[in-house]
Each structure stands twice: as C-alpha cells, then as structure tokens.
Amino acid sequence: MSTPANPPVSEAPNPAVRWFLSLVLVTFLAASATPTPMYHLYQEDWHFSATMLTLIFAIYPFTLLISLLVLGSLSDHIGRKPVIFAALILEILSMALFINAGSVSDLLLARVVQGFATGIATSVLAAALFDSDHHKGPLANSISPLIGLAAGALISSILVEYAPMPLHLSYWCLSALMAIQALMVWGLPETAKRQRGALKSLMPRISVPVAARQAMLEIVPSNIASWALGGFALSLAPSLIATATGSTSSLNGGIAVAVLTLAGAASVMIFRTKNPEPVLRFGTVTQATGIALILVAINSAQLWLVFAGFLVAGIGFGASFLGAVRTLVPLAAPHQRAGLMAAFYIMSYLAFSVPALLAGTMVRAAGLINTANGYGMILIALAAIALTGQIRRRNATCAAK
C-alpha cells in the first residue's frame, strides 16, 4: 500500500524475517479464499439467493478497503509488531465467527471482521517486508497474496470434499496457524521507530499526481477487467462450473481459483524485469483470450477448458497487474506514491466487488450461464478498449522520438 514514512531501524536484509512475514501474508489471503468452496454448501443449507451470495463475498473487499485506507499508515507511528499482532487476533476472531455461523447474517459479520483484519495486515506486512529486504521484500509482497489465494481455495476445497467437518475444519486449522504466528511476531525485530502523528495518519490520503493521470486513465479498463474477473471467480465460479458442466465436486471451484492465481504469480515472476508497457499489452490480450476460452467452455460444458481458460486469464491478470503498477509508480514522486496507490487500490477493490455483486443480482433474472456470458463479454470489451489506448500511447511515443 505504501512505503514506510520513517526509515527502518535496520537496513540489512533479513531473509528469515522476510520468509516469516511472507508466510503470514499467505495465511491472511488463504483465509480470505477459504470460504469460496463452501459458498454453494451454505447456499444449499440456508437457501439464499445468488445476490446474497455475492453480497457475502463483496462485503469483504469493501471493509478491507476502508481498513486499508484508514489504518494503512498506523504502523509507521506505533510500530510494525503491535499492528501485525492486532491483525492476527482480529483474523482469529473472524475464524471463530465462521465456525459458529448459523445464518447469513453471521457470515456477513465474519466477512466484515475478516476484511477489516486483512486490510490492516496488507498494509503493515507490505511495509515490514520492505523493511526486512528492500530488494526482495516488494517481490515477496506481490507474490505472496496470489499464492495465499491459491492455497486457501485449493486446500479448503480438498478438506470440504474429503475431510470431516467440511464447514469448520479449514477455519480451525487456520486459527491454530495464526495463533502460533501471533506468538512468534513478538520475536521479530521492530523495524519502525515510534513517532507522533498516529491519529493524523488515520486520515486517508488519496490523490493522482498530474503526471500519472493520463496513464491511470489508460489503465482503468484493463485493471477493472482483471479485478472483476477475480471477484467473479472467488464468488460465483463454483456455482457456475456446477451449472455449466454438471460436476458438483467442491474441488472445481478451488482448482479454478488456484489456477487463476498461481498463473498470475508465475506471470509476475516471469515478467518482473521486463519493460512494463509491452507487459501490460501482453497481459491485456492474454486476459481477454482466457475469458473467451472460459465462455466457450461453459457453453460447451467442457470442464477441462474451463480450467484452461482460467490458466490463460491468470497469466494475463498477473502481467496486467504488474504492468499497471510498474507503469504508474515511476510517474509519482516519493511523497505522492502512497496517495497514488490508494487511488489505484480503491479502483481495484471496487472492481473486485461491485461487478460481482451486480452479476449476482442478474442471476435470478437471466440465469447463471447468461449472466456469465454477458459478464465475460463486457470484460473482453474493456480489454479491447484498454488495448486500443495502449497501442495509441505506444504509437505516440514512437512518433515523438
């Protein structure tokens, strides 16, 4: 979210700390994806609509975003360790709420607490990873969330399909892991000196520098398409696969999310040293191709093609995200980057949640397959608009030279 406002206490890279912090970040994002394979089970047990299902999903990124914006800089003032510890305790509380959930309102409350905890963790762990290693920390911060989403969805789907207590065991395992991590946090070196201004830091800083505004506008369509696809996959993919192919295995939703996110992580690793502009163009085209494959798959009831489509789309997602961030960040001065990234993440998390919520409201009227077709075609159109703008920018740059 932002780089530390104050210099770290220790400048020397600390691989052990970096690995531990990466594991904590993986755990938070794994927890966020854990309910995905269970959504259709909750829906069957409690008989709620697709609209309510997507609301249960969407309330998480909304609260995460609020938490990220309000508390994103708090650890710069009171230290990293107490903030990481507080985030872990809140996340354990959300796991307890999931375990004891007996109604839709219970699920909504659990997701609210989870979103709030993850927002706190996302910011402080990004800063702590940068503190632990200025070179490898940012890369770990980019890869860990994608690995976490994949691990959470896949492991949860396996436990739901084959283990006892399908709606509880995953949460118990995560609670135990996070309790251990919460104790271990206090053994870390503190990398942020306490300083005044903690209350003032709670005021969100959102701004797009003049130099970055044109690039931001060009990135908007592709970025919305990327995050909207992720939101749809994490909320409605299990139900869509079951409806389109007739396969009701809980593994399908977990595999789809894992393929999407792991492909994104691999894409980030492959293209991390490349020029961001061609990477962004490649990501835009590849993502649109993957979405088209998913549409063909659900209309021909081909399960393997569904996974292939998510694989291709995931490669495009990772490249698009990496290209967008690496295009934007150099256009802002150091003191402007926090505000710029706040604006970027507002756009991203709204795209992650709002389109999926709208899709959920359309399912009752149009059906899940027709809704997915319309959703996918809109995302492809957004990618086409983005690609047109990217090509124009490249041509203008070449003409200027």
UniProtKB/TrEMBL annotation:
Keywords: Cell membrane, Membrane, Transmembrane, Transmembrane helix, Transport
Domain Major facilitator superfamily (MFS) profile, residue spans: 15-401
Main location: membrane
Localization (cell): Cell membrane
UniProt membrane topology term: Multi-pass membrane protein
Keyword Signal: no
Xref: InterPro entries: MFS, MFS_dom, MFS_trans_sf, MFS_Transporters
Pfam families tied to this protein: MFS_1 (PF07690)
Transmembrane segments: 49-71, 83-102, 108-130, 142-163, 169-188, 224-245, 251-271, 278-298, 304-325, 337-359, 365-387
PANTHER family reported in the protein's UniProt record: MAJOR FACILITATOR SUPERFAMILY MFS_1, RESISTANCE PROTEIN MDTM, PUTATIVE-RELATED-RELATED
Listed name of the protein: MFS transporter
